[in-house]
C-alpha cells in the first residue's frame, strides 16, 4: 500500500506493528497524517496500542479489519471491515483474509488519492 501511494506522489511509509510498538513514530505528523492499520482479528495488541497512541497525537487512524465489531475498529476514526464469514479454507493459513485485505487496500487507496 505504501509503495502504491508513493507511486502517485503521496508520501507514504510501511512500518510493521512490532516497529510501532518499539517507538518508531518519528515520521508521524499530527493533524496531517493518516495511518492505516490492518488486522484480521481487529484485536492485535500492537495495532490497538498504536491506534491509542496515534489518536493521542491527533493522527487520523483508518483500520482494515475482519470484524466490524472489534477493538481496533472502535479505536479508529474510520474502519473498513471485510467480515469474513467462513473459516479459512486451509485451516489456520490466512488466504481468504489476505485476498479480502488486498481488496480493501485498493478501496483505501482510491479514497485517499481522491482526497489529495
Summarize the topology.
Elements lengths: L1 H6 L9 H5 L12 E6 L5 H12 L3 E6 L5 H5 L2 E4 L14 H20 L1
Parallel strand pairs: 1-2, 2-3
Description:
- This protein has 116 residues and is an alpha/beta fold.
- Helix content is 41%, strand content 14%.
- It contains five helices and three strands; from the N terminus they run H-H-E-H-E-H-E-H.
- The protein has a three-stranded parallel β-sheet, with helices on both faces.
- The model has no long low-confidence stretch (mean pLDDT 77).
Give the H and E element order.
Answer: HHEHEHEH
Low-confidence stretches: none
**Which value, in Å, is the CA radius of gyration?**
14 Å
Structural class: alpha/beta
Largest sheet, if any? Answer: 3 strands, parallel
Helix content: 40-55%
DSSP summary, beta strand count: 3
**Total helix count?**
5
What is the 3D shape?
globular
Strands in their spatial order, largest beta sheet: 1-2-3
First-to-last CA distance: 16 Å
Please state the average pLDDT score. Answer: 77
TL;DR?
The chain has 116 residues and is of the alpha/beta class. The chain has helices at 2-7, 17-21, 45-56, 71-75, 96-115, and strands at residues 34-39, 60-65, 78-81.
